[in-house]
Amino acid sequence: MQDYAAIPDARFQTFDEKSDPAQVAPRLATLRSTLAGLNIDGFLIPRTDVHQGEYVPDCDARLAYLTGFTGSAGMAVVTTDLAALFVDSRYTLQAPAQTDTALVSIHDTTSTSPGDWMAQNLPSGSRIGFDPWLHTPGRLASIREPMERAGIELIPVANPVDTIWADRPAPPQGPLEVLGDNRTGKSTTEKLAELRAAMAKEDAGAVVLTLPESLCWLFNIRGRDVPHNPFVLGFAIVPADGSPTVFLAENKLTEENRSALSGTAELVGKDGFEAALADLAKQGRAVWFDPETAPVQVKSVLSNGARLIEKRDPVLLPKARKNEVELAGMREAHKLDGIALAKFLAWFDEAAPRGGLTEIDIVKMLEAYRREEQTAVDVSFETISGSGPNGAIVHYRVSEKTNRTLSPGELMLVDSGAQYLSGTTDITRTMATGPITAQQKDHFTRVLKGMIAISRARFPKGTNGAQIDILARQFLWQVGLTFNHGTGHGVGAFLSVHEGPAGISPRYTVPFEPGMVLSNEPGYYLEGQYGIRIENLVIVQESEVAPGYLDFETLTLAPIDRRLIATDMLEAAERDWLDAYHARVAREIGPHLDESTRRWLDQATAPL
């Protein structure tokens, strides 16, 4: 095992402090100085870019630039004398630590929406600006409704944040890669035929795609435009007849790329997208777009003559139903990841009790083990490495400023994933580093029982994630506890680690279908002390024992810390599941390890 005194540097992620509360005051003042010139009293700053993605390029991180908040979801409202930051329950601890709370009030969106806040705090007659490329019709409607009742108007304007951002990073210049059918399992021609069949049912003359993952999946392309996701940022218009048009950054409009996509799509600069929408409107075409993911500006332009078909992006569901080639790739990726995780967990088990190990050390070492596999091209998100009390911050990101030394005896939560050429992984493990309290065992075992309940679930076709979410929470609810995040999200195949439209939480009502890959990750977080989360990925599959029913195949292959389990709290069926899972991990991962690590794995996966 490697000595943790000589840990390799990370290549896929950095630990720079991305927020500076001291910068909030001058930036707010500069922004406010521009409002009068736009004849507005305030401005909305969402976390999203024009593609509404969870991950945005540095040049589009406007919310982080202005407020310091770097979470994956949120919105700020800045007026001439007030500023408010709205985040969900995942970020109620992170947001106050990253911004200037003397100037910016923090609000949990589960209890206070931006629209309601403005209705309560701004005078009637106020004019609030918004960038129509950064909001969807659906989200904007929910904001506008309470504002209109209060006599407050929303006004589309050119984005003033862009005008004050003097050192704004350049747009991404990553390459474009065209994947072969051997990796995608289905050609673009086949995918377009299926899309057009769906269009015919809606009598749609064209479909407008604005989500990068839909663009990448449909045209079998990948890129490096977004951190940790193999995305090409662009748009597409697919007509019912004729060649689709893909709108990309100018640097990607090469002859090589045109040749690779010839016969499937025409490449045009992104600047031509709005004009193409205007042409569709002028022709009076029936145009399908997703009001929950497309920018307001798309709807505004199309409304000048087109017949609007406002429905969910028609690529999302076919993309979520992985074909056999994609599933084989995902299984391969999780096997490769399991090998890296076994090496990492064995190293951690030896190193952590000795003391001196920092959160950044842990991230670097895990990444180093993953990089031993040549097909690992990135992490799938910035690793969450939370020791002790930091583990209770659900989406904690370690930086040089927050880096904490793990004390022996504390719990350690590591949530991580990788992008392999074959597929995408996401796994969370909570590890012991010394003596364990009865309370820690109780909490861990309740979380584990919930994870096993999802893993063992069998349900009729038509069931959705909202219906089974309770299975993961029931054992915590029995003692008045819960967790404030979803139990599971969809995962792409060498695409985004977070994808829709299915998942496991009260908000996911899309029925499960075979081939969907989901996370299964209940948790519990005791603020100021520790966090617990256990996460595996699963595939929805046809049940072999109950016709007409579905169940899950577990993808993830890594030990669950047996020392944290109160075995007397497990039912016989739960013990049997865990023993069988661990036996499978040892069988599939063990032969790829050196003798020392294999011995560790044998012990870590021994029957309860």
Based on the model shown, name its key terms:
hydrolase, alpha+beta, EC 3.4.11.-, Creatine Amidinohydrolase, Chain A, domain 1, 20% strand, Creatine Amidinohydrolase, single chain, 19 helices, 6-stranded mixed β-sheet, 608 residues, 28 strands, globular
Fold and architecture overview:
Helix 4 packs parallel to helix 5, helix 14 crosses helix 19 (595-604) and helix 16 runs antiparallel to helix 17. The relative contact order is 0.10. The protein folds into 3 domains: 21-164, Creatinase/prolidase N-terminal domain (Creatine Amidinohydrolase, Chain A, domain 1), CATH 3.40.350.10; 176-319, Creatine Amidinohydrolase, Chain A, domain 1, CATH 3.40.350.10; 321-601, Creatinase/methionine aminopeptidase superfamily (Creatine Amidinohydrolase, Alpha-Beta Complex). The longest helix is centred in the middle third of the chain and has 28 residues, at 324-351. Strand 5 (127-130), helix 5 and strand 6 form a beta-alpha-beta unit. It is globular and about 70 Å long. Helices cover 34% and strands 20% of the residues. The protein is built from 19 helices and 28 strands. The chain has a 6-stranded mixed β-sheet, with helices on both faces. A 6-stranded mixed β-sheet has the order 12-11-10-8-13-14, with helices on both faces. The chain starts with 23 loop residues before the first helix and ends with a helix. With 608 residues, it is an alpha+beta fold. Belongs to the peptidase M24B family. InterPro entries: Creatin/AminoP/Spt16_N, Creatinase/aminopeptidase-like, Creatinase_N, Pept_M24, Pept_M24B, Peptidase_M24_C, X-Pro_aminopeptidase_P. Its EC number is 3.4.11.-.
